[in-house]
Design goal:
The chain is an alpha+beta fold. The chain contains eight helices and 18 strands. It has two domains: about 220 residues, 3-Layer(aba) Sandwich (Rossmann fold); about 100 residues, no CATH class. Helix 2 packs across helix 3, helix 2 packs parallel to helix 4 and helix 3 crosses helix 4. The chain starts with a strand and ends with a strand.
């Protein structure tokens, strides 16, 4: 098991990471999700031994790795830019780590053959990596990382350079490989769709700390923090004023608030507003724009009295309303920290 305890890191004299602590269990894929510059890749480098914290500990199976150089940590790392050796063919790239360990030639050939089959590149052994597509090169990089049977796999924005369709295919294959091998993994991305597709747990980084640590479905249903909801594009975040009890005043009218905390009348709060088919409060919107998105329509609207509403809401509907039409929608309103 990988364990990070209270890691602290500064960059150019300014705090970058503060009190970073989490674990990764056997067979678990944990995703570090955050905006660019939030410190995700720095955490990965510290786990790999390519960078060092100012304080804190990194342990694997209870053993502190502070004195263990990168090549002895037995971790695999996959980069966005593939990091392949351009002068070597596919076979030699995948076999590189095995040759360093002086494994017998027949075992190396068998291991490489198994891995290339696993990443759907059987028969590519003699191909030059420079002749491969981006997706094929990333498959070679994954096979190379898997070859020495690492104790931990690390992925640093591995699909960032690929188009959407190829990204989805590789995500499905990668998820299957991780589940089959049971190798623990730390996956770094700023793409929430990748995170939700690959992770068993998501850690959301914001202002140098982990503000949310939960399963993907838990975070989606309850982001808890405005920063998390904004990063993931979950619903609409608007300002509201507490009227009394569970009632708040918004630019769309007075609605009921779902909140675990007690708020005083007049207190300003940030709330998450989502359309809800069953139950909830009814509000009226004047439709400003309609955009088709796969199997539903993304509808942008403002309060029915446009002059009283400076900001709008985005909701999703099965049927498309007309621009300018006044519609009534049911919404659920949750409080955010």
């Amino acid at each position: 098991m990988l364990e990070l305890r209270n890691l602290v890191k500064a960059y150019e004299g300014k705090p970058l990471l503060r009190d970073i602590s989490f674990t990764v269990a056997e067979g678990e894929t944990v995703c570090l999700l955050g905006a660019s510059g939030s410190g995700k890749s720095t955490i990965l480098k510290m786990i790999a031994g390519l960078d060092f914290p100012e304080s804190g500990h990194i342990l694997f199976n209870g053993i502190d790795l502070a004195q263990t150089p990168p090549h002895l940590r037995d971790f695999g790392l996959v980069f966005q830019d593939y990091g392949l050796f351009p002068h070597l063919n596919v076979f030699d790239n995948v076999a590189f780590g095995l040759k360093i360990r002086n494994l017998p030639t027949d075992k190396i050939r068998l291991r490489v053959a198994v891995l290339l089959e696993q990443v759907n590149l059987a028969g590519f052994e003699k191909r030059k990596v420079t002749d491969l597509s981006g997706g094929e090169q990333q498959r070679v990089a994954l096979a190379r990382a898997l070859a020495p049977s690492p104790r931990l796999l690390m992925f640093d924005e591995p699909l960032g350079a690929l188009d959407r369709a190829l990204k989805e295919d590789l995500l499905n294959e990668l998820r299957g490989i991780l589940h089959k091998t049971k190798i623990p993994a730390v996956y770094v991305t700023h793409d929430q769709e990748e995170a939700f597709a690959i992770a068993d747990r998501i850690l959301v980084l914001h202002d140098g700390i982990i503000i949310r640590d939960a399963a993907p479905q838990e975070i989606w249903l309850d982001p808890k923090y405005a920063a998390v909801a904004k990063l993931l594009g979950i619903g609409n975040i608007i300002d509201a004023e507490v009227i009394s009890g569970n009632k708040v005043k918004t630019k769309f009218g007075i609605v009921c608030l779902i909140c675990e905390h007690k708020h005083a009348a007049g207190e300003k709060v940030s709330v998450l507003v989502n359309a809800k088919d069953d139950g909830g409060d009814e509000i009226q919107l004047t439709v400003e724009d309609v955009l088709f998105k796969r199997d539903q329509f993304e509808v942008k609207g403002r309060g029915a009295a446009l002059s009283e509403s400076k900001g709008g809401l985005v909701i999703h509907m099965k049927d498309a309303p007309r621009v300018g039409q006044v519609i009534t929608v049911k919404v659920q309103v949750k409080c955010l920290a």
